[in-house]
Each structure stands twice: as structure tokens, then as C-alpha cells.
UniProtKB/TrEMBL annotation, chain A:
Source taxon at top rank: Bacteria
UniProt cofactor note: Binds 2 heme groups.
Phylogenetic lineage: Bacteria, Pseudomonadati, Pseudomonadota, Alphaproteobacteria, Hyphomicrobiales
Residues engaged in binding heme c 2: 263, 266-267
Cellular compartments per GO CC: periplasmic space
GO molecular function per UniProt: cytochrome-c peroxidase activity; electron transfer activity; heme binding; metal ion binding
Keyword Signal attributed: yes
Pfam families: CCP_MauG
Protein name from the UniProt record: Methylamine utilization protein
Chief location bin: periplasm
Keywords: Heme, Iron, Metal-binding, Oxidoreductase, Periplasm, Signal
The keyword Heme is assigned to this record: yes
Protein source organism: Mesorhizobium atlanticum
From TrEMBL, chain B:
Highest taxon listed in the record's lineage: Bacteria
Organism in which the protein naturally occurs: Mesorhizobium atlanticum
InterPro entries hit by this protein: YtkA-like_dom
Every YtkA-like domain range: 62-129
Protein name according to UniProt: Auxin-binding protein
Amino acid sequence: MRRLTSVACLLALAALALLGGCGEPQFNDAEKKTIASLALNTLPSLKPDTTNQYADAPAAAALGSTLFFDVGMSRDGTVSCSTCHKIDRQFQDDLPQAVGVGRTNRRTMPLAGVARNPWFFWDGRRDSLWAQALTPLENPLEQAGNRAAFAHYIEKRFGERYERIFGPLPDLSTVPANASPLGTDAEKAAWNAMSAAQQDDVNRVYANIGKAIAAFERSIEPQQTRFDRFAIDLATGAKPEGDAAFSPEEILGLKLFIGKANCVSCHNGPRFTDNAFHNTGVPPADGLPPDRGRVDAVAQVQADPFNCFGKFRDGDESACRELRFMVKDGPQIMRAYKTPSLRGAADRPPYMHAGQFATLDEVMAHYSKAPPSVEGGSEVHPLDLSERERAALVAFVKTLSD
Amino acid sequence: MASIWRYILAGLGLAALLVGIVAAVYLMLPQPAPAPDISRSKSTANGLFVASFEPERGVIRQGELQSWLLTLKTAAGAPVEGAAITVSGGMPQHDHGLPTSPQATDYLGDGRYRIDGIKFTMSGWWQLRFAISAAVGSDSVVFNIVL
């Protein structure tokens, strides 16, 4: 009889162990493969930027760093790149819309991994990091300067450092103090009165300012998070320990993220972005001018003299395939915006291209409901997520910040 | 001796339980949807050409701009030269087109055309449609690519 009892106990234990095993968080092979593809250890090393021959020159990065934090790089001496791209705030500013000299109509983007982008700004209106860096410098709502003034400023403040990197500065003695093809009427008139050679000289110095800032920004890379530690343990079969262990809610959030909620369709790869543009039906922000996203950016990047086809590009045109093969028209680019990386997103509300959503809860509610777009067609479909599922997705996104 | 039979019976019981659990898990797995035709070589819609479509470097890398080769032969097997090719496509299940505008950029001889600027930004079912116009006439073909 005692033996019978012990056998029954053994059976019960075996059954419990089996059922217990089923209750453990489990991922199938396809899920494991997807999770591994999101981990930071799959991020390839940063490719050289052949359009910027100074991209990996330490002296250029050092000058770029100085310029990035220098409020002298603005019309009224109060705004630098770092005014909105704050170093202690993931290089963003926590505001719904950036405020430089004036208030813009777009959310400041964080900079981790920025050098890996094929397109810049929410709408991709620039095609290289150095061309991007030039744009706020002359935007009247951001740094509000003009390229002639910047060339003079570089000569006066950083002439020696500049020349050690880029070679001799041009003769700027007859260049007006303020001139730009994009500035005020007076600045435009002054620009148009300059000779083509002078314009070229100033544009060259201006392009090099962008190349130095870009060289600095290449060093800003994403950091490992709790999710990455969990993903590495899952891939190697090790049991996640300490903060690498996920709670049941975080596991559910991850399963939804790569499954039913389809987040991973666009938020894919180790940066959680497909680097492409999508209309997801995000409503316009109140009180801002009409914003059509990628539709208007296409013409802007084509018209930019500092784009990859322009004469200020280093290297050959083989680097310009993104620009060459970009989608130029069609309904899909109406109100399409770039998929942002989700790394660190939980720590930087508000969300979307004009800070439309104050919290991640609001973001999940939007994607669960998937309202139609005010213009163009939204690519997302209603998910009808439960409150528990939305909370689980938020819990998972937070693991990309810890 | 009777106790040995008890152990055997218990073993059988445990085995039955295991089989039951494995079967239950198997039955609960989602059934895959019918897969689209992913052949890399096929006749064009009206049978004018035989088209083959392969990544130029052999592998598909998600998220990278890649070039592919479209090889066109007549039904009799002769290479099709001087074809005008336009490319379109998208993801049928996501209501969106291609994230790039691929183009036929080079003729490499022997009916082979380089289609450059292809980028698959996400996993799933993609379609690439080619409208082909050559001396013998015009035809089209659709290739399915599942990542």
C-alpha cells in the first residue's frame, strides 16, 4: 500500500511539473527569432558615410561637438542644437513642439543612433545627417541664422580649428554680414548680389559646419536595456536573472508587440524602426498649420542644394540610392511620418510628430482604436485591445528604457 | 512481484498523460494560412515571356536597399532584349505600396535586367509587379516574396 501511495505521489509530481512547465512564459521558435532580431547585439557597426569625408575624423567631431552646444550659432545668441536636443534628456526636450527662437510645429526627435537613419526629420525632408544639421540653423523658428553670418562666425571664433580640418577658409572679406537664399528679404537680396563664386564659398563653409556636427552626432548610440538582457538570455537559453527577468505582464506585452498587436511590422530591427514613412491616422495637433508629412518633404529634399545629388557631397553618387529610389508620389505618402525608434520612448513623452499624445496609454488607445486619417488612408486597423493588453504593451515598452 | 506491475501501470499512465498533453498543445497551435505562390520563375500573365526574379547577391536582407535581377526569355527560350520595364507592388495584407520606387537600371545581356532600389522594410507577404514591353508585345508578371 505504501508503494502505491509513493507511485501516486510520483505521478502527481510529474503531472504538476508538466503543467507547471506549460505555465512558464514560452515563446515558439518564430517568436524567439523575432525577439532576437530586436536585440541591440544585432545592431551592425556604423557604416562609413562616404558623402561626408570628415564623418569619422576626431577633430571634426570635436569641432562639431563645440558647435552643437554653442548658442553663438543662432541669430540672437540664445539657441544651439542642444537647446532642443538636450544631452541629459536623450537629446530631446520633452515638449510637444520644439521651441527655438520661435515655436515650431514638430516634436524634437531624440538622437540615439541617428547616424543610422536614411532620412531625417519626421517627414524625411533631408537625406543625410550633415544636410539635416544645416536646416535648423537657418529655420526662422529654430536657430534663425543665415549662412553668411555663420561663415563669418566660424572664421572669427573657430578659424584655426576649421582650417586644420577642412583646409583654408575662403576670402570672406567682401561677403555681406548677413545673406542667405532662405532668409529675410534683405538677406535674400544680399545673397543674390553675391557672385556665384562667393555663394559657392559660403555654401562650402556652411556644408562643412554640417559635416562637423554630423561627425559629432555619429557618436550618439543607443544603450543596452532590460529588454536586451532578456533577449540575450532567451536566445542563449540562459534563465534571465535579476532585472533581465520579465514579469508576466511584460511577457504578455512582448508577445502582443510581436504578435496580435502587429507593432513589430514597423517597429522592427534592433532600433525598433523600419526607417520608413507611414500614415497611422495620428490626428493633427490643435492650433498648428496643415501638415501633410512626407508629401511635402519629397519636394523639399529634391530642392535641397545639400542633398546627395548636390555638389557638396563627398564621394560618388552610388551613396545616393535612397534619394534616387525614393517614392515621390502616390496616396501612401499623404500624412506619412517616419517610424520612430522605441528605445527610451517610455521616458520621453509626449508622443508623435507634434506631441499629440501625452502618455503611452494614449498611444496604445490610438492604435487599438485605429481611427481613420484626416487626409490620406491610415495603414493600421483596429486591434480592439483590452485594458489589460494595452497596459501590458506599455509595460513592455518600458523595458526599452530601463 | 505485484508491485512491478504497479510501476509498469504507473509508467503507462504517465506516458498516456504526456501523449495527451502533447496532442492538446499541437491541436491548439494556429493553422498557417495558405501560402502564396513564391516561385522565382514563371510565365507572364499572357504567356508572352518566361520571367525569373532573383536577388543579385543571392540573399534577401530586410531593411536594406538591394538590387535584383529580372531575366526575361521568350516562350521558346530566347533572351528578350530592349524591354521597357516598370515596377510596382506592395503588401496586399497591409494596404500599402512599396517603400521605395525600384527601377530597371541596367541591361546586363542574355535577357537579364538589373532592378535596383528594392527594399523590404518588414516581414510578411510582398508583391512585385512588372509591366514589360518588348518588340514581341507587352505583358506583366507578379512575384510573391514572403519574408
